Amino acid sequence: MKTNITLLAAAFAFAALSPALRAEDDGKPEGNKPARMIEKFDANKDGELDEAEKAAAKEACGEHKGQRDGKFRERLLKKFDEDKDGKLDETEKAAAKEAMQARREEMKEKFDTNKDGKLDETERKAARAAHKKNRRGSKDAGAEAAE
Fold it and tell me: 15-59: per-residue pLDDT in tens?
């Protein structure tokens, strides 16, 4: 059941925030993740990741993902686990899904300045900046994002 909650948390995290919101705003194209990984983990600067560099990248990404998923899972349970049994039943999952859909719509409404129903690059940048500001300014910003 723990695996189901973890998978559910990961699915909600993916659905709750667009890839643009999760990507760091480092001025590089979002779709160029392999190049960014090479730049970050290519210790010998040969333009490729050798086995040791790949292992370091995998470990770093896994550690970060585990921390993020664990915290997200805790926030989901705190907010939506009505019977406090440590897992989300179907009703609780539906409530979480509904809250996250409402949050996505709220974000689209707030940042879709040209009202075309989607976020362009400028709008995504504004959303990312606001998301980062909220995350830095409040420990519970992620729980609010789940609303």
Answer: 554 444 444 444 444 456 678 888 888 888 898 888 888 888 877
- Complete DSSP assignment for 1-32: -HHHHHHHHHHHHHHHS-HHHHS--SSS-TT-
Closest-CA residue to 127 (of 109, 100, 101, 146): 109
- pLDDT tens per residue, range 91-126: 999 999 999 999 888 888 999 999 998 888 899 889
In a domain, 23, yes or no: no
The answer as to whether 22 is a domain residue is no
Q: Is residue 24 part of a domain?
A: no
Q: What is the pTM of this model?
A: 0.45
| Count: domains in the chain | 1
- 40: closest CA among 28, 113, 112? 28
Q: Which domain holds residue 60?
A: 2-16+30-145
8 A C-beta contact, residue 103 and residue 147: yes
